[in-house]
Amino acid sequence: MYILDFNLGMINLMKWQTPLFVRLFCVLGLLTMPLSPTSQAAPTTRFSVPKERPSPSSSPVESPSLEESGMIIVSPPPLQPSPQLSIETVKNTRPSYYYYQQSFSAQFGAAWDAENEDPREILWLIALKYMLPRPLSPHWELGLSHHSSQKSFFHFSRKFTFRQRQAYRPHLSLGLAHRPRAEQQLIGFLNFDNYLVRAELGFEDLLKVPRSVRMDLSLLAGPQDVLAQFTFGYSWAR
Q1: Pick from 173, 166, 168, 167: which is nearest to 220 by CA?
Q2: Which residues pair with 232 in a beta bridge?
Q3: Residues near 124 by Cβ (< 8 Å), separated by ≥ 6?
Q4: What is the three-class DSSP state of 196?
Q5: pLDDT of 79
Q6: Where are the alpha helices (DSSP H) in 16-132?
Q7: Residue 226 carries which DSSP code?
Q8: How far from the centroid of its chain's Cα atoms is residue 231's Cα?
Q9: Residue 41 pLDDT exceeds 90
Q10: 185 vs 2, 149, 221, CA distance in Å?
Q11: Prediction pTM value
Q12: What is residue 185's DSSP assignment?
């Protein structure tokens, strides 16, 4: 405000007749006098623009293709559905592990009897055998055989089975056999001449659970009888 009044006063002085040097002094004063605070321009704020980083070369280095590096892309083979196994196929499958504790066998075969009227005659026979339950070998086995010569034998043996849990199962049996005689009735069990030593060698081969084919060769020898038997049949184990 004071500066404006001073300027007006200087202008009025210049209107009057004043000396030349006074007028020059007034003009210099006007030119060198600072502006009022209201007339000063607001300071400008400078923003620094971030410098752009130098970009890599516009042509990037291309990596070699898989063919050039010696690698071959192979597509995986198409998935094939697994075959559906029927119940009959599963039942007929020969298992590699066969668990059982007891068995029953029915066999027929031929026999040679040294005490027969004609030693060269081949007799036929039927045999039934039952193996008592037990988880592991050896087992006790009971049996009955009847010959065409009207001779019958009961036996009680200890059966040793090899590879017991496999489909093919060889075995060896050792025990005693007894020949009952009708004329002696029950007293015949006390007659040691009616007893024979029995040995058997054979095998069982699984056909279809629980049935196996069984083949045996047995020898019986006692004070009054000497026999050799060959039997073939089936056994059912469970």
Answers
A1: 173
A2: 108, 215
A3: 108, 109, 110, 111, 147, 148
A4: strand
A5: 76
A6: 20-32, 87-92
A7: E
A8: 42
A9: no
A10: 164, 19, 22
A11: 0.60
A12: G
Q: What is the CA radius of gyration of the chain?
A: 61
CA distances from 13 to 1, 40, 51, 181 (A): 19, 27, 58, 177
**pLDDT tens sequence across 128-184:** 999 999 999 999 999 999 999 899 999 999 999 998 888 999 999 999 999 998 888
159: which 2 tokens? Answer: 């059966």
Q: Is 196 exposed, middle or buried (0-12, 13-18, 19+ CB in 10 A)?
A: buried
- The full length of the chain comes to 238
Gap between the Cα atoms of 10 and 23, Å rounded = 9
Secondary structure (H, E, C), 11-33: HHHHHCCCCHHHHHHHHHHHHHC
Question: Contacts from 134-138 at CB under 8 Å and sequence distance 24+?
Answer: 134/101, 134/102, 135/101, 136/164, 137/161, 137/162, 137/164
- According to DSSP, residue 169 is labeled E
Cα–Cα nearest to 198, from 146, 148, 153, 231 = 153
In this structure, what are the phi and psi dihedrals at residue 194, rounded to the nearest 5 degrees?
-90, 0
> Under 8 Å CB-to-CB from 61, ≥6 apart: which residues?
none
Token digits of residue 57: 């070369």
Which one, of 190, 191, 183, 129, lies nearest residue 154 by Cα?
Answer: 129
Residue in the structure block whose two tokens are 């060269």: 120
**What whole-number distance in Å separates Cα of residue 221 and Cα of residue 199?**
9
Site of tokens 């009971």:
142
Question: How far is it, in rounded angstroms, from Cα 81 to Cα 66?
Answer: 32
Q: Dihedrals φ, ψ of 61, to 5°? A: -75, 120
As a whole number of angstroms, the distance between CA 3 and CA 40 comes to 14
